[in-house]
Amino acid sequence: MKKIFALASLTLMVAACGNKEKEYDATGIFEATEVTVSAKSTGELKFFDVVEGGEVENGHVVGRIDAYQLQLKKEQLETSRGQLAANKKQLSSSRKATDSRQLDLEKQLSSISQQIANAQRERQRFSELVRDGAVPRKQLDDINYQIKVLEKQLEATREQIRSNNVSLSEQSASIGAQMEGIDAQAAGLEAQIRQIDDQIANTEVVAPLTGTVLEKYVELGEFVTTGKPLFKMADTKNMFIRAYVTSAQLQEVKVGQQVKVFADYGNGQKKEYDGMVSWISSRSEFTPKTILTDDERADLVYAVKVAVKNDGFVKIGMYGEVKFNK
Fold first, then answer.
1. How much of the chain, in percent, has pLDDT values that exceed 90?
2. Mean pLDDT of 283-308
3. What's the pLDDT band for 231 if we cut at 50, 70, 90?
4. Cβ contacts of 150 within 8 Å, gap of 6 or more
């Protein structure tokens, strides 16, 4: 009788174990977006505020490479640019002075023409007075002489204006050509200054994202070259677990799906997080040796990424489990 009872108890235990629901649907490793920050310039590292395990903010300057020679070159270019601007201003002033002299001649021409017109009216009036014997003829002769003098001045002024027009045209063309040359040189200098500014900006080491410094490859005062890795960091606030599912499980998984994620600390210690499926591989692969699947006999599986908001306890490389909400 005891043997029968023991056999019945063992049967119930096996059945209970067989009916126990699995606690996870897929397993994987926690990962984070990692970035290796490299030097964009060559020179001595004058400033480097990076500590392994420390936090850095996106866009913050965490290092600076020596830019003294670049600054000197920029100052030289700016001096040359200022000299070109002064030369252009001088040419512009010369052109304005020439235009002003031409305008004065035109005003003078108008004034002489007006004087001749007034003198001609006086001559008409004195001619009548001379005929009447009211004034001596000498006054009329003086007016005629004055008119001749004014007419000569008028012709001389016109000739001077014509000559100045030719000279002004030639001078204007010459000044215009010189200004175009100055503008071309200035444009070249501006391009060089922008290039130097870009090179100076590249001497600053800027954090590309907000995250944690994982590894530090150089120290303050070292001479670095363009492309040399300076440090590696990762976005540990927004992590993901790369898990693997069988083809049979694919019908239960879709992008955007809310799931449960468990961080495994070992010895049965786990912590639960809310997760979201952010990516599903379109290609199958052989099951990694470190991964358990729902069907342990499956040779081909599909990788999925589940995004998780980290509270600081999840670490890169930690083992985790995923439970799909049904």
1. 48
2. 74
3. very high
4. 112, 115, 116, 119
Rounded to 5 degrees, φ, ψ at 303 are -80, 140
286's tokens = 């052989």
Which segment of 261-275, 280-294, 300-314 scores lowest on mean pLDDT?
280-294
Distance CA 129, CA 136 (A): 9
62-91: burial string, b at 16+ Cβ within 10 Å, e else: bbbbbbeebeebbeebeebbeebeebbeeb
Question: In this model, does residue 15 exceed pLDDT 50?
Answer: no
Whether 278 and 305 have beta carbons less than 8 Å apart is answered as: yes
pLDDT at 169: 66
Number of neighbours of residue 18 by Cβ within 10 angstroms: 7
Of 297, 301, 305, nearest to 286 by C-alpha is 301
Q: Which residues contact 117 (CB under 8 A, 6 or more apart)?
A: none
Which helix (H) or strand (E) segment holds residue 245: the answer is strand 229-245
The DSSP element (H or E) to which 303 belongs, if any, is strand 300-309
